[in-house]
Amino acid sequence: KAKAEPKDFLHISDFDKATILKILDHAKEVKALLKSGERTFLPFRGKTMAMIFAKPSMRTRVSFETGFFLLGGHALYLGPDDIQMGKREETRDVARVLSGYNDIIMARLFAHQDILDLAKYATIPVINGLTDYNHPCQIMADVLTIIEHIGQLEGIKVVYVGDGNNIVHSWLLMASVIPFHFVCACPKGFEPDGKTVEKARQAGISKIEITNDPKEAVRGADVVYSDVWASMGQKEEAANRRQVFKGFQVDENLMKLAGPKAYFMHCLPAERGVEVTDGVIEAPNSIVFPQAENRMHAQNAIMLHMLGL
Ligand code: CP
Ligand code: NVA
């Protein structure tokens, strides 16, 4: 049965499989339209989006702003010094003020509780553009990319190698909605949140493995996925993590162990020579740039859905 439709796009698992697949289908359609040069589909005409960034960004900022513009709307970039949510002004006040001017809010924040509060007090849809906990728009774009290259997510093996971070949490929440085989290979002590792993396992549809052995993990993978070892907000841990994560670099040998059908994916930005080698990113089976481009198309469809368009 269909879950009650939430107002906000905060976690993939807030939606049922049919809705996630419908959004991805729509993303493909609108992508084809934009790729054809068609510029008369303007569903966001007369609409504005407030984009709150407490952290840096290239993909999220440019893909949301460009996507919203291409479909007729106007997006406002509010950087870390502008609103200073929680410091200059309380989150619940920001939420209600922005709701008075805008049709939709996109936010990239540190604490996940802040986006929950923002969504609670906003009367308009709030889209999660990454928190310390998750990154749902990224994994929607990733799945769109997998569908384009492999045909479907269902039944395939995705092996994430690295830190059990926000990207992993969104993969786990995706695995509670669509059945596939998800493996996270991370150093001891850097596993994803236990409750989120439990949630994915309890859904009982996907095979979920958390391991400390990347070589064993990647065997037979359809996708090998990497992300930075030190996320935004953890950069002072970077030197220590480089030691702890030795052996978790995705290099040519690891890709060879994965096998010939394995694609390489990375949410970017990548630190070449750290979590992934230059050769792996530049190899013919690396799909990191189509993946980055799909951020815009996945998000356009997410916004259309959330705005009921
Ligand atoms: N992948 C991603 O979210 O990139 P940005 O940090 O550049 O937005
Ligand atoms: N885990 C990374 C993802 C960046 C898109 C971070 O949070 O910095």
TrEMBL record:
Alphabetically ordered keywords of this record: Amino-acid biosynthesis, Arginine biosynthesis, Chloroplast, Plastid, Transferase, Transit peptide
Superkingdom of this protein's organism: Eukaryota
A cellular-component GO term for this protein: chloroplast
Domain Aspartate/ornithine carbamoyltransferase Asp/Orn-binding: 154-305
Catalytic activity entry: carbamoyl phosphate + L-ornithine = L-citrulline + phosphate + H(+)
GO process terms (BP): citrulline biosynthetic process; L-arginine biosynthetic process via ornithine
Chain ranges of the Aspartate/ornithine carbamoyltransferase carbamoyl-P binding domain: 7-148
Descriptive protein name: ornithine carbamoyltransferase
Chloroplast keyword on record: yes
GO MF: amino acid binding; ornithine carbamoyltransferase activity
Family to which the UniProt record says this protein belongs: Belongs to the aspartate/ornithine carbamoyltransferase superfamily. OTCase family.
Entry's EC annotation: 2.1.3.3
Major localisation: plastid
The keyword Transferase is annotated on this UniProt entry: yes
Taxonomy of the source species: Eukaryota, Viridiplantae, Streptophyta, Embryophyta, Tracheophyta
Subcellular localization: Plastid, Chloroplast
